[in-house]
Fold this protein.
Amino acid sequence: MVATPQSSSSASSGTGVLVDVPPIVSPSREIPTTFSSSLKSWWATSEEQSALSEERLFRRIPFFVSSRPNSLDRCKTLSDTELIATPTSPSPRSFGVTATVAPATVMLPGYGAGIGFFFHNFEPLSKWRTPQLPSIKYNKDDVQSRVAQAESFFIESLEEWRQTMGIEKMNLIGHSLGGYLSTAYALRYPQRVSRLILLSSAGVPHDSYSLAVEQELSETTPEGADTGRNTDPARTPSKHEVDARHQSKWRQNPTTLTRFALWAWEQGWSPFTIVRRMAFWGPMVVGKYSSRRFGHLGDDEVRDVHDYIWHITVARGSGEYCVSHLLAPGAHARLPLVDRVHDLKIPVSFIYGDQDWMDPWGGRQAVENMKKAGNPDGRLHIIPGAGHHLYLDNPEATNKLILKELERKPTMNH
């Protein structure tokens, strides 16, 4: 959720306000590369360490206020112009979202990620205008019921949160599975959504060339990714470019591993369950992925991101058990969004990385279907030097584009 900047009131001295200094947090462990270091990392895993892994990322946000207890005698002075924020709920995941913000902007992370992945995006976006287990009973052939129940597990939680926060209307920014669920929420509660910004959204096209998990785990640091220093702006791709990328993704001969993964996906297996059962080998396996995929980040950042990924992966499973009901083998939706977006009457932005394993062809088809239904406010954009995690690969271009899309005026009255 995007933070709202607030002006601090001056203390009695007239020079600033006194705020508690956040309690000291130990740095993340080195990413495990040996059995012994992996064992130590696995042994140290706990709910407290999981919360700390998220807080380390949030502490890079200037207005983050730790919810952890702190000594009252450790204080510092902030100038009147600095950003502060007071969480409106006990969770650090909600920053400055109140009923007076209209519309609020809410960010939904993707499958296998968490809200902490947006640590490079909260601050720039804040300057814009102010576990339970799913129980799904289904007939395998009754796709409509199966998808509806799985979507409800996520959507109704978001709706309950919206009501609790007193938010009348929201802009939704969703990445990957979060993009799919943002769209599903907008279709069910159209009066509650002002616009959708979908970052490499899952579930858009009719088909896909491989399993989502396989592609995510095999993705490497995109060529040209250089956090905060890639100044190439986002662009609108040509029809030829989108078609060429779509054709290049077809795989004629799936490997034995892929066939097994497809079978396991249909059986409801979760890749996180496999990692959990690896026990003390798990941190090293996750570390190999973290180092390969996010190696362009600074040393401290990649360690913190790895620690966050590890704790998300080994946490008690919840929504992960719904995903196979939403997405068929191949990372495409059982009820593709491309066939559903015609009911949307709001601006929708489809954004992909230029080296994204998600296919922008679906986004282009969705924009065309929206136009045919009378909604000309669909847009397709490409972020240079970026893969699936475009908000970390090229945060500068991603943040500028999101702000531009938030400011974009609809061409029709919705």
Observations:
- The first helix runs from residue 35 to 43.
- The mean pLDDT is 76.
- Residues 59 and 65 are 8 Å apart (CA to CA).
- The chain is about 40% helix and 10% strand.
